[in-house]
Amino acid sequence: xxxxxxxxxxxxxxxxxxxxxxxxxxxxxxxxxxxxxxxxxxxxxxxxxxxxxxxxxxxxxxxxxxxxxxxxxxxxxxxxxxxxxxxxxxxxxxxxxxxxxxxxxxxxxxxxxxxxxxxxxxxxxxxxxxxxxxxxxxxxxxxxxxxxxxxxxxxxxxxxxxxxxxxxxxxxxxxxxxxxxxxxxxxxxxxxxxxxxxxxxxxxxxxxxxxxxxxxxxxxxxxxxxxxxxxxxxxxxxxxxxxxxxxxxxxxxxxxxxxxxxxxxxxxxxxxxxxxxxxxxxxxxxxxxxxxxxxxxxxxxxxxxxxx
Amino acid sequence: xxxxxxxxxxxxxxxxxxxxxxxxxxxxxxxxxxxxxxxxxxxxxxxxxxxxxxxxxxxxxxxxxxxxxxxxxxxxxxxxxxxxxxxxxxxxxxxxxxxxxxxxxxxxxxxxxxxxxxxxxxxxxxxxxxxxxxxxxxxxxxxxxxxxxxxxxxxxxxxxxxxxxxxxxxxxxxxxxxxxxxxxxxxxxxxxxxxxxxxxxxxxxxxxxxxxxxxxxxxxxxxxxxxxxxxxxxxxxxxxxxxxxxxxxxxxxxxxxxxxxxxxxxxxxxxxxxxxxxxxxxxxxxxxxxxxxxxxxxxxxxxxxxxxxxxxxxxxxxxxxxxxxxxxxxxxxxxxxxxxxxxxxxxxxxxxxxxxxxxxxxxxxxxxxxxxxxxxxxxxxxxxxxxxxxxxxxxxxxxxxxxxxxxxxxxxxxxxxxxxxxxxxxxxxxxxxxxxxxxxxxxxxxxxxxxxxxxxxxxxxxxxxxxxxxxxxxxxxxxxxxxxxxxxxxxxxxxxxxxxxxxxxxxxxxxxxxxxxxxxxxxxxxxxxxxxxxxxxxxxxxxxxxxxxxxxxxxxxxxxxxxxxxxxxxxxxxxxxxxxxxxxxxxxxxxxxxxxxxxxxxxxxxxxx
Lengths: 308, 609
Known about the structure:
The structure holds 2 protein chains of 2 kinds.
Chain A: E1 2-3, E2 15-20, H1 28-33, E3 41-46, H2 55-64, E4 68-71, H3 77-85, E5 94-98, H4 104-121, E6 125-134, E7 148-151, E8 167-172, H5 179-187, E9 191-198, H6 202-211, H7 213-218, E10 224-228, H8 232-246, E11 251-256, H9 260-273, E12 278-283, E13 295-306
Chain B: H1 3-6, H2 20-25, H3 33-37, E1 41-45, H4 52-57, H5 61-66, H6 72-78, E2 82-86, H7 90-101, H8 106-132, H9 147-161, H10 170-191, H11 199-206, H12 214-227, E3 235-239, H13 247-256, E4 264-270, E5 293-297, H14 303-320, H15 327-331, H16 335-343, H17 353-361, H18 363-370, H19 383-403, H20 410-413, H21 420-427, H22 431-448, H23 456-475, H24 488-504, E6 513-517, H25 520-536, E7 539-542, E8 558-561, H26 563-566, E9 577-580, H27 581-586, H28 588-598
Helix pairs in contact in B: 7-8, 8-10, 8-12, 9-12, 14-22, 16-19, 17-18, 17-19, 22-23, 24-25, 24-28
């Protein structure tokens, strides 16, 4: 896998992958941002239909694009995606993926499917990942009971050779109050690092600090890193640098809360360093009232070349 | 700088990743250690942080050789076997579970699972062989082998284990095992990208499958022991945190506990109700006549059982910092303990002024108090009244004083939870909590540059911090879909609020309910939450029969909140009457209402009781 330094949209994508739900930014990238006439095939991960916010709008858009919809909770989603790639993705193809409203699991499944497909076919393809930053919404006060915590997908679990080598935990922090703290007590890492996102809206910064103050107060400065949401290449380099520097003595587990661009880059690191790094997700189910996440206009993107 | 010096607050003394030498640096044997050291199968159960890992690690040669404490020599005399420590962790289960979702069939999964477990055990055994021959670590259990004999022994063992060695030494053997494990990881990683068809023959072609470790350790042990001239040696395989291990391994090991081997025995540790456990498989496991294993349980319902151990452990921490005072000199006496002492004995000055203040604003207490006054109107410190004394103290502290117009801010009310006696209670004999809390207090006190005892406000801040971390852990404990509204955190909050309402309700109760019994209905509804709470130490078993070991069946058993959680609800650090959990849960709505009226707020207009 090779990370591209520059990622500019092209007008001849062969395939677009997105997700469709009630968030209005769900179709923002393809519908409004790119300003190119996408004539490619569309595969869309479909959340349950609802009457909320922009669900109908998003669905209408994707239907106009003749999308093939895949249920969000399909147990065979990876294979379903691979089946769709056949006939659409060839050696040298260009794929565009909008991760804005995907879950971390979906992002992992999409990566798994692309990786597996190109391995079997021995193709080289370019994949551009886009992420639309939402306008600020106040975070929920409570994080619901945890339903799932573990590797994003099975391939992101990593592999441990020596159980005496301690875990290290690398958090991409988000709003979830005290969840990082609880996970520290759970994973019992000997080394901790946190990556704090910096976007253009300072309201996010304030909420992040508040939700994670118990960690920040006790962690030494050299373990706290910031990253710009709109520079995922630099984030990849920073994260890889940290992992390579600590991997000999620790067994890293990355837990990416916060912007999904961090989750995506974490998974890139896992692919690059497999099987030595784990990437986890924590899911709390749906406890809070649905909220629309509206595109702020700020978009970040990163392109990779996948090869066998 | 030692490994402990480098540990951060977040380590909270987790022995899992400490070397045996580092564990030995501050090891103070808890009451259960003597039982553990005895030859034979042992099963240790207890919540996380209760010292299981430390105790098992102390059975390793590296720890026993470097241990310098007063009990060290005695332990070395008793432990005449070699401990082989095998750790598991949260990744093991995840790693091996991966294969199921990557399309491996059940037979393939079991074969690779057995192989990986075997390799981890063989690696631990190889390390133990190395330690036995290490002449630099001291003479305890040291064996000697000439270099040429080492080559023969290693070669013979490698043949049995079907490993190819680059270097014929124990280091080479360990490296070969690591290489085999690494290659399996890469194989699974690549295999996950391939089609399922043909997998069985690809696995066979790799030639790495190994049988369960039980089949592969006996002969190497004989080879080694015969070579060093100690054919009758014994070996203890110590499996830690079994709740994180694959289910099949757990079952196999538990089965072995009921059998005898002339050379090998097992010491197993487990948190009973693991998050990822698919069955409470040892719920009905109890040592019975004819069984040859010992059960050690690490729940301590009463403070007195943990007092001596806690003091010894804290003294060792203090000594390392050059502090030779008794813990009471460092942390001060507890307000409650002082009050209790003063309440005893007719000639001592009683801390009883508050009782008269309380009766002025609390009619129900006044009625109760009247029964325990002498002719002069002074309290008679009979046994029943002494029991109620602490209840009255809390009630005055958190409710009565405000009604009197004596503004007891939340910062002042911490007095009831600070001081040495309270710290002992709050730490529950849990070494991780003891060291975490005490170390934090000492570290922060150093920055303050004040003299001892440590300021009560600082102590309270550390306790609140520890409680917050613990609550976070409860919040992130995984629940199943069925239990989504019934997580441990919410359940304990309901219980805590109930106990709080008992203490601070309209009517003074000399013996308020502050423990609960798990009845059939509540067990059925809150099974997951109770298991989580028990596993994490958030609830503590109170045996009906003194010293009865907790054996896993939660139904009809009595529990209290751990004292760390008790501070959240302003309830005393002791347990009293119990009530069925179903009643407590069903009554929560009315209790919540009372609590809303109660909470002290400096800005609130308190109109009295």
